[in-house]
TrEMBL record:
It comes from the Eukaryota. It comes from Apiospora aurea. It holds the Pfam family GH16_XgeA. Keywords: Hydrolase, Signal. Residues 15-303 form the GH16 domain. SUPFAM superfamilies: Concanavalin A-like lectins/glucanases. This is Glycoside hydrolase family 16 protein. Residues 1-18 form the signal peptide.
Length: 356
């Protein structure tokens, strides 16, 4: 009976674990949302600000909606708060952001969320952020005007610093359903400036299909020389764009991208200057959606500390000078839950296993 019971339960176990963020050797998971919850429910408002109303940016057409009208965060009045169908949990551990025709101010509604969680890439370490994302199954010919994105803004924009001086890192954008992903940085001033605004500094990569792929951004701040530090873009582990402090050439501007607090954004825009507006063939609904399996923030272990535990202090400690970095209270709570007390003997034994 037990083998048959286990076989029967296996699909349900696999489903419940399908979108747990992966573990990576040498990295600690600092924060994640894997979008668990009942189908049709709102994403966790402890983690996300749900943006509503007309954003009035980029000539976009969508009105962002949410079932929670009280969460009015956009500057314009909410147009449609009667349904969560633009922004909802699937019930299968994913988030669905779905554009629909026929509502809002300009004939389309969609969804956008911004994380309440902020973090600063750790000095002297490697910081990784990523999300697993797929797109709806409508044909490419039916996606004119659709613009899904996973990106970050400098938290200073919430304190009055104007774009692009706040810094922006676009981890994934696609337009019009085309099988091309874009990674871009915006910075300094507009128009022109270091990041050639309003175009930004970016590169693109082809993707094989509209199924789930992992989009990643990685800061390597292990060098004490800011010009040698880097930000790198990946899809499914393949790097396709790298930007260094030397490329930026201005330490203050580099700091807005690599040494300042940032927050996550997930949204599905409709129309705008880049993709253009939808046409008569553009279809809405779940076949046009962006679906997200998880969002995660990792930091590479402090390898210098582990070497020291093994009695090997030959590596310069300045490679990992992050021991006194301030940690936000909410992060401390997360770390306390995920990092139980470990004895010095255990640390030494682990270090010897990896470095002996």
């Amino acid at each position: 009976m037990w083998p048959n019971t286990l076989l029967a339960l296996a699909p349900f176990v696999a489903s419940s674990l399908a979108w747990a963020p992966p573990s990576y050797s040498g990295f600690n998971l600092r924060w994640t949302d894997a979008f668990g919850g009942s189908g049709g429910a709102s994403p966790d408002q402890g983690n996300w600000n749900i943006i509503t109303g007309d954003l009035n940016v980029n000539n976009e057409l969508e009105t962002c909606t949410s079932v929670y009208a009280a969460q009015l965060l956009a500057p314009c009045p909410i147009q449609d708060s009667s349904s969560s169908r633009n922004l909802q949990l699937s019930g299968g551990n994913t988030l669905q952001i779905v554009p629909w025709k026929g509502g809002g101010t300009h004939g389309w509604t969609s969804g956008r969320i911004e994380s309440k969680y902020t973090f600063t890439p750790a000095a002297g370490a490697v910081t990784r952020v990523e999300a697993s994302i797929r797109f709806g199954s409508n044909p490419i010919s039916a996606k004119q005007g659709l613009w899904p994105a996973f990106w970050m803004l400098g938290n200073s924009i919430r304190n009055g610093v104007q774009w692009p001086g706040c810094g922006e890192l676009d981890i994934m954008e696609t337009v019009n359903g085309l099988l091309t992903g874009y990674g871009t940085v915006h910075c300094d001033r507009a128009p022109g400036g270091i990041c050639q605004e309003t175009q930004g500094l970016g590169k693109s990569i082809g993707i094989p299909n509209q199924e789930f792929h992992v989009w990643r951004l990685e800061w390597d701040l292990t060098s004490s020389n800011w010009q040698s530090q880097s930000i790198k873009w990946f899809v499914d582990g393949q790097a396709y764009h790298t930007l260094t402090g030397g490329n930026i050439g201005n330490q203050a501007v580099w700091n807005t991208l690599a040494h300042a607090p940032m927050f996550f954004i997930l949204n599905m825009a409709v129309g705008g200057g880049w993709p253009g507006n939808p046409n008569g063939a553009t279809q809405d609904g779940y076949g046009a959606m962006m679906e997200v399996g998880y969002v995660a923030h990792y930091q590479r272990n402090n390898m210098a500390a582990m070497k020291f535990a093994n009695g090997n202090s030959s590596s310069p400690e300045t490679e990992y000078p992050n021991t006194n970095a301030p940690v936000a209270p909410e992060m401390m709570m997360l770390l306390d839950k995920e990092a139980p007390s470990i004895s010095a003997n255990t640390i030494t034994r682990i270090a010897r296993r990896f470095f002996s």
